[in-house]
Amino acid sequence: MKKILLFVLFLSLAHTSCSKDDGTAPQGDGKLPELQIATLREAPVTMGAAVSVDALKTDEKYRDLVVREFTSLTGENAMKMDALAPAQGSYKWDDADYLVQFAADHGMRVHGHTLIWYRTEAWWLGQILSTDKEVWKGIMKTYIQDVVGHFRGKVASWDVVNEVFEDDGTMRDCIWRRYIGDEYVELAFRYAHEADPDAVLFYNEYGQDYSFLKNQKVCEFARSLVEKGVPVHGIGLQFHTHTAQTEEHLKYAIRCAAALGLKVHVSELDVRVNDEGDPDRVFTEEDAAAQQAVYRYVAQGMMELPAEQCYGITTWGVTDAATWLAEEHPDWPLLFDARYAKKPAYHGLLQGFYK
Ligand code: G3I
Question: What separation in Å is there between the alpha carbon of 13 and the centre of ligand 1?
């Protein structure tokens, strides 16, 4: 019954779309046509990037590129609990405030990432001796409301909870779940909503690009939250994906996330080529073409959504010079190369935006 309902919802997605009708000139030489726009700021889907505050402060070329191309910013690390809360009840706002001011100065939206994530819990949570559920609810409420309250009216949206499920579809262990129970997720949304009723609240998850089980779990879970009246407004698809990923799966994941009528954010897009972790790998023309196609599929998938559900596409980083993927072995997952020039991937987006 649930599957039938989902299927009906897929089919009933309105035909109004994110697309604009401007920009039409096709490219010659047998290439796919591209939307003709000066920069991604004019894209029909809000384009964002996860940024490093250090790079914004110190690297002029980086800063200029961000300002030229993007209309939404996410802090790659600046708004995580381990960065914001060095001690219980004490906050370090500098980097996050800098990011928010930078965005305001350049007419950009800010997406907050992330209030609750098992990997960035503050160290001091481990020092708390109480196992009382009410105490833990209070700690979570205070943290979320202090942070969301601090940025109220300045941060448009939040990843409230990040990565609720394991790959096998079971709910992931984290300190909040251990002491509060599964209810920690819905409480996090309620607390965030109380602190800023205008903020758009996302449940952000990974793996929908490669796992049908993950898609199903996320949809079922989001539906259960909506049915309980939890203020969840959108689903974030991280999409840390790779060049072998199929058009069908990527577009299916986007439709699946949209099936409940919530907003959809491709929230952490990057397309790796060196899945094998080969230390001697180079970036070939074939890699660039395959990567361009994946960026195109994602843009097309988002363009198919009703406009009000299409929240945006955010790349997880700006250039190949600095990406979390290259920390252990070489990779080239982003829209701009290490010299900050546009890659074929960029044209993949423009092709995907072409209608
Ligand atoms: O800030 C310290 C710095 O003071 C210290 O000198 C340095 C030494 O290693 O570490 C710095 O912190 C690192 C931080 O990135 C900033 O560079 C952390 O160790 C490192 O764990 C952290 O990694 C980030 C990771 O999330 C964990 O927070 C990555 O940059 C970031 O790209 C990654 O992003 C996540 C998303 O938030 C959620 N989805 C998956 C995605 C990739 O893992």
Answer: 37
